[in-house]
Fold:
Amino acid sequence: MPLVTPAVAPFEYSLHIPHDPRAVRVARASLRTALTAHELPELIDRAELLASDLANSRSSLFSWRLRGAGSPGVQAAT
Structure:
């Protein structure tokens, strides 16, 4: 069953993370904070898992961008 998120104001965050043992923790905490601030807690677990996988599988600096379109009924796969 698809997950329907509530309507939120548009937002965009960018984070540049160096190759560092603390990178996974920083990426996960940043995502958690941003999604909580925009009242999207149902996306936190998936976003943290993705951030962990990306941070662990790279060997140099990486960047991510988190955008909220602000459209009601945005769906995420479950």
The two ends are 6 Å apart (CA to CA).
